[in-house]
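For the sake of transparency, this paper describes our internal protein records without simplification. The remainder of this section carries one protein's record, kept here as part of the documentation:
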Amino acid sequence: EAVADRIEAAGIRRLYTGHCTGDRAFEMDVESTAILLIFKDSGDNKDGKADVYVDGEYVLTADPRAVGWTHCDPVIIMRKAQRKVHHVKIAMKPGCEDKDFTILGFGIVQ
């Protein structure tokens, strides 16, 4: 079974844009040895930072305005020696809850 089929079967959209307020966040479980997050960079003031966690541990803050122009930004958020199920959580950084963050996709290495 292809990874894309499993992601789709889990109800995860390939393009995710939305407001995350309070405890609301994007979350998924995926079996892999590595995970790549691809998000949209932007110069727009309506876009805000999001904190990325894998297995409950803070990994990075994704800042779509760091470069100041629109393009995709791929970042490795997890790399391990053995394949297992990992939990990914992406939540708006405190102070950015009223802003947008666009997930363009994920790269999954099995």
The first helix runs from residue 3 to 9. Residues 12-19 have pLDDT under 50 and may be disordered. The helical segments are 3-9. The two ends are 12 Å apart (CA to CA).
